[in-house]
């Protein structure tokens, strides 16, 4: 499976909200129903958020089926950094972790620990490599795929440091093998995710590595069970790394990496504006761009339950009121891990941006512009495409007819 968003056509009313919101124009209206072009979809979840009829859902088997019928002798849950922000202020970290264990997990690994390590790797990479500016974060799979699809010239700006989910799964797996004396195939790693893009990052990672995560569990599918268990006292737990916990909100990864010359941008429309600036060479004096598809960062993911601004406030409360119990796990291994190359990755061969023949690209663009000149320029969406230019592209690619435009058809009559 390499696709993480599904459309229920029976629920779809053809309202065009999703088509207009999609940042890569991957959605069309065909026979008054939305249609997703898989090759253009970056799995950002904007369609899930905007659809008033709940026609879009993440593709996922029931998480408990994967748990109950799996061959795993040890099941590990990785808690994403925004998770604690979903619970009211004062909620015990221990209670959150133990409520997750009670769902059938043997071990809980906090992604804030690996986020702390990845922060150090980002800092070192930026200080080592001076000829690339700005570096662009690779933590958000939707942003990375947006760049691959729409800004291939910026692929070299990506920092190519594995995200905390990937590093955390590797470390958790090694720890479980040591503690329980198990083999890789006997261990199942499940990531509790704030967004649908993480599912695609597991099943079809953009890097040249196999993900150590076996499956992604949408947080909202287990939140009710967690909340019912959350009030039962249990003091056995491992505390998160405070710097790593900052990754849950926009700007947190840059702060955690001790960067000062950075831009933190969140929300797809804002990201597109910043990427335009980078492509035009206007941000070469900036070290790092932290780009997150969801509003306020990962706390705004479509799998979360709480308003992102409230969740952000809850996380800030935890950080400000933390005691001495908050430990940083595996930090002493950082130098060894970095020198071994464990944080770094390369693009898969098939994910390298296509190098267009300039002459062919110019000819193609001219033909599309000729078609676009025939259209009314209203961007009304009645043809089933979000804009007249998008319709012109579809006509050029033989995916639509010119007179699908009802304005043009009316004039012709």
Helical stretch tally: 17
Q: Uncertain regions: pLDDT < 50 for 5+ in a row? A: none
Could you tell me the radius of gyration in angstroms? 23 Å
Q: How much beta, percentage-wise?
A: 5-15%
The number of strands is: 11
Broad structural category: alpha/beta
* Count of the domains: 2
Q: Which sheet architecture does the biggest sheet show?
A: 4 strands, parallel
Q: End-to-end distance, in Å?
A: 46 Å
Helix content: 25-40%
Mean of pLDDT = 87
The helix-strand sequence is EHEEHEHEHEHEHHEHEHHHEHEHHHHH
General form = globular
Strand order of the largest sheet: 6-5-8-9
Topology:
Blueprint: E1 5-7, H1 17-21, E2 27-30, E3 33-36, H2 46-50, E4 56-58, H3 63-68, E5 74-79, H4 93-101, E6 107-110, H5 111-128, E7 135-136, H6 141-150, H7 164-180, E8 187-193, H8 197-203, E9 215-218, H9 219-229, H10 242-245, H11 252-256, E10 262-266, H12 268-279, E11 288-292, H13 308-320, H14 334-339, H15 358-374, H16 388-396, H17 406-412
Parallel strand pairs: 5-6, 5-8, 7-11, 8-9, 10-11
Antiparallel strand pairs: 1-4, 2-3
């Amino acid at each position: 499976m390499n696709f993480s968003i599904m459309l229920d056509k029976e629920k779809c009313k053809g309202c065009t909200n999703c088509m207009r919101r999609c940042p890569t124009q991957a959605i069309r209206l065909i026979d008054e129903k939305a249609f997703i072009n898989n090759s253009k979809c970056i799995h950002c979840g904007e369609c899930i958020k905007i659809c008033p009829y709940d026609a879009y859902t993440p593709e996922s088997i029931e998480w408990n089926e994967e748990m109950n019928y799996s061959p795993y002798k040890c099941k590990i849950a990785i808690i994403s950094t925004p998770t604690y922000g979903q619970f009211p202020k004062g909620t015990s970290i221990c209670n959150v972790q133990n409520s997750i264990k009670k769902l059938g997990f043997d071990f809980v690994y906090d992604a804030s620990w690996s986020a702390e390590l990845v922060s150090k790797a980002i800092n070192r990479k930026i200080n080592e490599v001076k000829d690339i500016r700005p570096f662009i974060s690779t933590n958000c799979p939707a942003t990375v795929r947006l760049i691959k699809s729409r800004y291939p010239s910026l692929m070299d700006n990506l920092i190519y440091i594995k995200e905390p989910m990937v590093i955390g799964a590797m470390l958790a797996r090694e720890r479980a093998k040591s503690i329980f004396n198990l083999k890789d195939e006997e261990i199942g790693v499940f990531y509790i995710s704030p967004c649908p893009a993480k599912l695609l990052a597991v099943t079809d990672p953009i890097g040249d590595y196999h993900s150590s995560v076996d499956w992604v569990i949408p947080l909202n599918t287990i939140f009710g069970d967690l909340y019912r268990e959350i009030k039962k006292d249990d003091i056995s737990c491992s505390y998160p790394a405070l710097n790593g916990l900052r990754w849950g909100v926009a700007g947190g990864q840059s702060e955690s990496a001790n960067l000062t010359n950075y831009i933190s941008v969140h929300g797809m429309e804002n990201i597109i504006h910043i990427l335009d600036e980078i492509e035009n060479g206007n941000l070469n004096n900036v070290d790092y761009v932290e780009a997150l598809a969801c509003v306020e960062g990962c706390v705004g993911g479509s799998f979360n339950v709480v308003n992102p601004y409230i969740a952000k406030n809850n996380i800030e409360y935890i950080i400000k009121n933390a005691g001495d119990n908050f430990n940083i796990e595996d930090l002493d291994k950082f130098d060894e891990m970095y020198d071994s190359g464990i944080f770094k990755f390369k693009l898969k061969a098939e994910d390298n941006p296509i190098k267009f023949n300039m002459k062919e690209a110019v000819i193609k663009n001219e033909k599309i512009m000729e078609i676009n000149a025939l259209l009314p320029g209203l961007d009304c969406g009645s043809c089933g495409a979000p804009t007249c230019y998008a319709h012109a592209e579809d006509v050029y690619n033989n995916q639509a007819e010119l007179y699908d435009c009802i304005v043009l058809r009316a004039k012709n009559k």
